Amino acid sequence: MQSSVNLEISRRDLLASSAVAVAVTGVARQADAQSAAPSAAHKSHVTFIVNGESSSLDIDNRTSLLDALREHLHLTGTKKGCDHGQCGACTVMVEGRRINSCLTLAIMHDGDAITTIEGLGRPGALHPMQAAFVKHDGFQCGYCTPGQICSSIGVLDEIKANIPSHVTGDLTAPVQLSQMEVRERMSGNICRCGAYSNIVDAISEIGGIKA
Ligand code: FES
Ligand code: FES
Asked: Which residues contact 185 (CB under 8 A, 6 or more apart)?
């Protein structure tokens, strides 16, 4: 008669085999982490002029400009809302133009001049747009505000440069600043607190639109 296989496993055997499995998994995870860590080949040296000062970084090529500013240069005034180009909280000025810093790689801006909210004004010496936001209550929680203010300055510059928008009527005439133009051009900056009408009032004052 065929002998039956003894399937009984002692508690000690079970613990010993579990310990081996944990050790093997740990080694595998460590190997995964090492292969995911950026090697020198995945890094670049980049230099920006941020708020008038030169800043050099050795960063992973995949780093967004937003993360370079916040995580590497510790300029946390620029906010991360969606990280997908949908909210405008990360708006900064690059070479004088507003840009969603979450949608661009830091290494694409080697040598560029970048202005963040920290470079616009300081307590006691606010940029006129910052002062207008305070005057008109253009914020509640303030999370979107740095992006709103950078974008507002960009909007007025775009109109001065005669760049039309979707609502510009006559493309052959100089672009006129209006509340409709402001609302359209600021539509990429979302405010969950709903301070929109006060934001438009602040921009209108600085742009010289009569209410
Ligand atoms: Fe960049 Fe939302 S964080 S658009
Ligand atoms: Fe709160 Fe705009 S002030 S999100």
From this structure: 151, 155, 158, 159, 165
Please indicate whether residue 190, judged by its CB atom, sits closer than 6 Å to ligand 1: no
37-86 pLDDT tens trace: 667 779 999 999 999 999 999 999 999 999 999 999 999 999 999 999 99
**CA of 67, nearest ligand number:** 1
**Full DSSP string of 69-133:** IIIIS--TTS--SSSSSSS-TTEEEETTEEEEGGGSBGGGGTT-EEE-HHHH-BTTB--HHHHHH
pLDDT tens track for 164-206: 999 999 999 999 999 999 999 999 999 999 999 999 999 999 9
Token match 């004004």: residue? Answer: 121
Ligand 1: which of 76, 79, 82 to mutate, judged by most atoms within 8 Å of the beta carbon? Answer: 82
Q: Is 156 helix (H, G, I), strand (E, B) or coil?
A: helix
Cα 74 to Cα 55, 79, 93, 97, 207: the distances in Å are: 12, 11, 17, 22, 32
